[in-house]
Amino acid sequence: MAFQTIILAAGQGTRMRSALPKVLHEIGGKSLLGHVYHLAAQLHDNEINVIYGHGGEQVLAALSELKTRWTEQKQRLGTGHAVMQVADWIKDDGTVLILYGDVPLLRLETVQKLIHHANATSIGLLTITLDNPAGYGRIVRDGNGNVVCIVEEKDATAEQRAIREVNTGILALNGGMLKGWLQRLTNDNAQGEYYLTDIIGMAVGDGIDVDTTQPGDESEVLGVNNRMQLAQLERMYQMRQANLLMEQGLTLADPARFDLRGEIESLGQDVEIDVNVILQGKIRLGSRCKIGPNVLIKDSQIGDDVEILANCVIEDAKLGAGSRIGPFARIRPESHIGEQAHIGNFVEIKKTEVGKGTKINHLSYVGDAIIGAGVNVGAGTITCNYDGANKHLTVIEDGAFIGSDTQLVAPVTVGKNATIGAGSTVTRDAPADQLSLSRSKQVTVEGWQRPVKKRG
Ligand code: UD1
Ligand code: CA
């Protein structure tokens, strides 16, 4: 049997006060519409159709990788009108699920429960009971508790407004029946809109049951209409992720100060994360690694027993087992830090291989370099990798010792176990096992006297 999902996303989102269409605003680093799409995409053999409107070109351009149909609703004449745009696409013998593009935290289990109620004799409708039902369509039931219809707040009587069970807008039903009812919708109501909700009353009139399902909690059905709600849903989403990760054994110093904007692809045992850590993109965390406070890590692989001290920024890098980074270090893309290596404070590493046990502990820039094992790079060492036009490679072989304040003018190689004297500007290859230095000779001026301040 066919399965189809319609995502309603033509709303303008005026209250966001943004140049960006509402559904492109992000939660956890993913657009609102992206969240809804990915939920739908988890359902087996699901054909998806997104109804877009305002800012449509921007939405299509930003989300072109989604495997969905896109249908434009040129005029925003209501939720029923939105669904009418795809009436020809809806299959008679299948199930249709309706989702909202601005309701990003709905859970798969809830949708699966809902779909279960959609068949030849019943509709599945997701409802929730709220302390404050203002703004929502109310679920009207008869004396036996059966759903009779949905009445929008603006069309409701005072008595109906007192009903606290509301329509979430999310429902699942047979495609053929939906098409029949769409044809009968009118805009004869307080808002002059084609209400999708009117099909509930029609279904009941046609002898179809309306089976209601409730979400696990309210967060699942909250929509985003303004920046306050966006921020609230962000925290709810982050708390969900934090809870899942803690269930898997992660220690978080404070789950309220943790942000995952992407995905932890693998998580080792006994990992500890201090406050204000942001993990972005795809991250792998080995066992027993410790991440200090105020660290940003993007698209990186962190090995076992790695220690990242406070205030580091790490992007597109691999950190080998037992390595120690920071505090205040920046590891830039295409860097690979070897096992047991130490990268210390105020060190910037870019597109560099750092060998096992190598130490670059203080105030250095190392870019476009291949550094062997057991190398000691002294404080203030700089690879001069850029000649203004091209980038060049610096190679430092195993066991070399680079004295402090050395400039390595690339392309250049420092041989195995070589020593570079402090303060050198290295412009030619330095041979293995030998001391090389380039330093102007120190002189002492005999009889020199320090000037004294003149009087008067
Ligand atoms: C709708 C329901 C209401 C329910 C509420 C839940 C109707 C008539 N009312 O209210 O019962 O309690 O959702 O939030 O359905 N959209 C379009 N095209 C349109 C109109 C809306 O794509 O022409 C989309 C919006 O982008 C949004 C969704 O449909 O994602 C709901 O629209 P919204 O205006 O928020 O619905 P309400 O009328 O407030
Ligand atoms: Ca709404």
Share of helix, binned: 10-25%
Task: Give the domain tally.
Answer: 2
Shape: elongated
Per CATH, the class of the largest domain reads: Alpha Beta
CATH topology of the largest domain: Spore Coat Polysaccharide Biosynthesis Protein SpsA, Chain A
Provide the residue-averaged pLDDT: 97
Give me the CATH architecture of the largest domain, please. Answer: Alpha-Beta Complex
Structural class: alpha/beta
| Largest pleated sheet | 11 strands, parallel
Note the gap between the termini: 104 Å
Bound molecules: uridine-diphosphate-N-acetylglucosamine, calcium ion
Arrangement of strands in the largest sheet? 12-14-16-19-22-25-27-29-32-35-37
Q: Can you identify the CATH superfamily of the largest domain?
A: Spore Coat Polysaccharide Biosynthesis Protein SpsA, Chain A
Low-confidence stretches: none
Radius of gyration: 31 Å
Report the β-strand fraction as a percent range. 25-35%
What is the count of helical runs? 8
